[in-house]
Amino acid sequence: MTERKTPRIVPLVDLRSASLRTPAAAFAADTQIVATGLLTDTQQRPLRDLRISVTDRCNFRCNYCMPKEVFDKDHQYLPHSALLSFEEITRLAKVFVAHGVQKIRLTGGEPLLRKNIERLIEQLSALRTVEGRPLDLTLTTNGSLLARKARALKAAGLQRVTVSLDGLDDAVFRSMNDVDFPVADVLAGIEAAQAAGLGPIKINMVVKRGTNEHQILPMARRFMGSGIVLRFIEYMDVGATNGWRMNEVMPSAEVVQLIHAELPLVQLEPSNPGETAERWGYADAAGQHDQALGEIGVISSVTQAFCGDCNRARLSTEGKVYLCLFAAQGYDLRALLRAEASEADLASAVGHIWQGRTDRYSELRSALAPDAGSGMRRVEMSYIGG
Questions:
Q1: Helix/strand/coil (H, E, C) string of the chain?
Q2: Most buried pick, 98, 122, 151, 217, via CB within 10 A?
Q3: Domains of the chain (ranges plus CATH)?
């Protein structure tokens, strides 16, 4: 007798239009916040990192992000008029930088699908931190268009890229991207990025138990000593459409243990405050980090919350600010932009939004039942980037 499989029910929840009002105090003359680069939230976390989504479109249909059952041929993407223009993005980025942002990451969807993205990169690369230094300007991509765009991205001022790659086995990779895209083309894009000087390159592998955990060691072997940092990410309960279950999460500790058994590792210090990845270096015969062999990282947002020093804000493609990857609603800054708000008003609005930030979802999730997070309404990762 053939066992009948229970179909996966995917909730259809569109939270793109949900938004919070900018705190009214932001516009009161006696409570305006001036940008000094010293802004902190209620947990004394500074604002240092801004993730900017430039499109809600993607040419992959990875089931942990944009499952084909929801994002099908009839899915309604945001109209172009709803998207922030490059000039609007740059204007808001300038405000965030004045408040202390030192790093900007362009995300999507797939950011390389945004037409003339190089022009935005040119504008952002001209910005300077409050200390007068160039921004750390980077971009996360699925790599599908990287081979043809790498040189232009570098010429425009992009410093480095992070590439999403969930396995080296072509059948596994085609199955996970669900559009039959070959892994060889992504590897060619990584090589093109290296040749163009977009480095150090990072590669992100989302590990989903029962799907691609057997690709962990091949990935580690492939990129050890290549100058590329490979990072393993726990499968997260982002959004409401990926059918997340705790039993499909492979804890980072298991990933490290698996690699260490074949390729000895030694733990390294964090590279920066607020770093999401725990760093592990490949060890030499004496048990010391061999820099020539490089390192890996593990991002443990499910099993080891790192909310305590999270310094990231996220700007959606239609101008909403989200204070957590797991947030349900964002603050609408596009309305202020298009109402011709002054620079002082924009700075005060961002200041009040961040100053009132209390978000620490991953820490709270750890106190819940194992699958408690899976039914909560949250914005989709494809909308605000990872």
A1: CCCCCCCCCCCCCCCCCCEECCCHHHHCCCCCCCCCCCCECCCCCECCEEEEECCCCCCCCCCCCCCCCCCCCCCCCCCHHHCCCHHHHHHHHHHHHHCCCCEEEEECCCHHHCCCHHHHHHHHHCCECCCCCECEEEEEECCCCHHHHHHHHHHHCCCEEEEECCCCCHHHHHHHHCCCCCHHHHHHHHHHHHHHCCCCCEEEEEEECCCCHHHHHHHHHHHCCCCCEEEEEECCCCCCCCCCCHHHECCHHHHHHHHHHHCCEEECCCCCCCCCCEEEEEECCCCCECCCCCEEEEECCCCCCCHHHCCEEEECCCCEEECCCCCCCEEECHHHHHCCCCHHHHHHHHHHHHHCCCCCHHHHHCCCCCCHHHHCCCCCHHHHCC
A2: 98
A3: 44-339+363-384 (3.20.20.70)
